[in-house]
Amino acid sequence: MIQNNNNEAEKVHFALMAIGAAADLMGISPSEMHKRLDKVGLVKNLLFDLYDVEHTQSLQNVAEDVVYALHNWEKTDKSELIDVVNGTLFTEHHFTRVTHSHRFCKC
Questions:
Q1: Domain spans of the chain?
Q2: C-alpha angle 72/73/79, rounded to 5°?
Q3: C-alpha Rg value of the chain to the nearest Å
Q4: pTM, 2 dp
């Protein structure tokens, strides 16, 4: 139970750092970045669900992944996207920078 709480705390800390770094990269506030990421589901789908992969990268690389994914998600029809783990698939171009993950693939 304590280990699970520590892991969740690490994920929250990682997400906060990634959101802040991505916001800096885009020249917007962290709260605006969080709002935009949350609107398209990237806080959960990228920062929390891919924590094991993303937290091994540099903060700069993570920030670039977040910005890249956000731009792709904001300009596409979300009805085409589904999650492999939950029985659905994302189209490849939304996460091309996340090449170190096999979680996302093309339908």
A1: 2-76
A2: 130
A3: 13
A4: 0.69
